[in-house]
């Protein structure tokens, strides 16, 4: 699954359009659609999207022993 696919699913689950998502993070729908087509949405944008919709975003490397190197939009991480 690509990042773009994940964001489309998020919008479907929240019952909003991609245009609404882009406006909530301060981007034009045209610019954001270009990023989706090129699959170039960056980590900071993903975290801003999570914050805008009150959901958690996590990205991590998980080792065999269970330890993680993690990026998250959660304030306590």
UniProtKB/TrEMBL annotation:
Pfam families this protein is in?
A: HTH_26
Origin superkingdom: Bacteria
Domain named HTH cro/C1-type: which ranges?
Answer: 7-60
The residue stretches assigned to a coiled coil in this entry are none
Which InterPro entries does its entry note? Cro/C1-type_HTH, Lambda_DNA-bd_dom_sf
Name recorded for this polypeptide: Helix-turn-helix transcriptional regulator
